[in-house]
Design brief:
The chain is mainly β and 227 residues long. It has one helix at 2-21; strands at residues 30-38, 44-56, 59-66, 74-79, 82-87, 90-96, 113-121, 124-132, 139-142, 146-147, 162-171, 174-178, 201-203, 208-209, 217-220, 223-226.
Length: 227
């Protein structure tokens, strides 16, 4: 009886340690510098960040905002090592950090190859999932960081021909991860860019603007923006 009780306690402890070891992506103080590329428009750099809590359709979520204020803002949450965002009040899966080597990952085409390993960046060990499929850039998900590509612009904001790349990740303003740390080759070499660029802005009447107005509507990259 004592042996059985000991085994139960040991197993419970192992499960507890395993759960504690997992590094969440959505933590307060987390910030991601993202390059948005939409040919033929100019490159656009956005800073996404976790900005407190919010409730969507009765579900506790984190609010994700960016330095453009009114665009590309959404709610997201993590559960069972999966990252979801709320799409019209319903959860939509973005990342699954529970994926194992050889698993098929929906949405990345037939013939995909999924490998799972661990990388160490700035003294921190993190799980890495690499998804490769013929004719596509390698997709890489890293525990506590997120995706290297196309997981930053959602819903009506995502249009054909638009691609987003993670350039840097910060935790309370400390750089903890860079594009090169993913260890995969992308069709963009922007990790050394240190100047934030924004798309061309125009007033509703068609006049070119040097900066976004404090309030009202303007046009950026061919899209109307309301502040």
């Amino acid at each position: 009886m004592k042996k059985i009780l000991f085994l139960i306690i040991a197993l419970t402890s192992c499960l507890s340690v395993s759960a504690q070891d997992y590094k969440n992506i959505l933590t307060e103080g987390k910030r991601w510098k993202v390059l948005v590329r939409h040919w033929p428009h100019e490159d656009l750099y956005l800073d996404f960040r976790v900005s407190g809590d919010t409730i969507v359709d009765g579900r506790n979520c984190k609010r994700i905002t960016n330095d453009q204020g009114t665009t590309h803002t959404f709610a997201a949450y993590e559960e069972d090592r999966k990252l979801y965002y709320m799409d019209s009040g319903k959860p939509s899966l973005l990342l699954d950090m529970a994926v194992k080597t050889g698993d098929d990952v929906l949405g990345y085409g037939e013939g995909g190859n999924t490998t799972v390993d661990e990388i160490t960046v700035k003294g921190v060990n993190r799980k890495r999932i690499v998804i490769e499929s013929p004719g596509n850039e390698a997709v890489c998900w890293v525990e506590g960081i997120g995706s290297n590509i196309d997981k930053w612009i959602y819903g009506p904001e995502k249009v054909i021909g638009m691609t987003s790349y993670l350039i840097e990740c910060y935790d309370n303003d400390e750089l903890i991860f860079s594009q090169s740390d993913f260890g995969v080759t992308l069709g963009v070499n922007a990790a050394t860019q240190d100047r934030k660029k924004f798309g061309t802005m125009y007033s509703i009447s068609g006049m070119k603007l040097k900066e976004a107005p404090a309030n009202g509507m303007y046009i950026m990259d061919g899209k109307k923006v309301l502040k």
